[in-house]
Amino acid sequence: MGWEPEIGGRVVAGDRIDGRIMPVDDRFEPIDIHVKRTEGVTITFADDFVAEFNLVALRLRCPCAECQALRQRGEDGWPRPSSPIPLEITTAEMHGAWGLSPTWNDGHATGVFPFELLRQWADDEGERQDR
Q: Phi and psi at residue 111, in whole multiples of 5°?
């Protein structure tokens, strides 16, 4: 019997399907993550693609529910009235093997940035620059 995803489910690298482990897609597998607390994040993926993200761009695109709700209301997640300026990452940790979880100097720490999403953003930005 085959694997059937739940509604909205997806197969992730490392998942088992019919006893087989799904291969890791090199495009989404980070091999090096460099966080410059006052500048940005650089990720090198297993296919040697290097993606660079500045702090403000990351903070404004935070994927957490709170920031998504603010964007839906036409508001920015940063800066808020009490936000320290300049923006900094105080800590950053791996969230499992699939994402990066930064803590910002404004105390915000609920956004997990999946590597697949970060790669998609970088690819999309590259396509815009190529035009």
A: -85, 125
CA distances from 9 to 6, 32, 95 (A): 5, 28, 19
**What are the pLDDT digits (tens) for 67-121?**
999 999 999 888 888 888 999 999 999 998 889 999 999 999 999 999 999 999 9
Res 2 pLDDT > 60: no
Selected from 3.30.530.20, 3.40.50.2000, 2.70.70.10, 3.30.2020.30, the CATH number assigned to the domain covering 55-130 reads: 3.30.2020.30
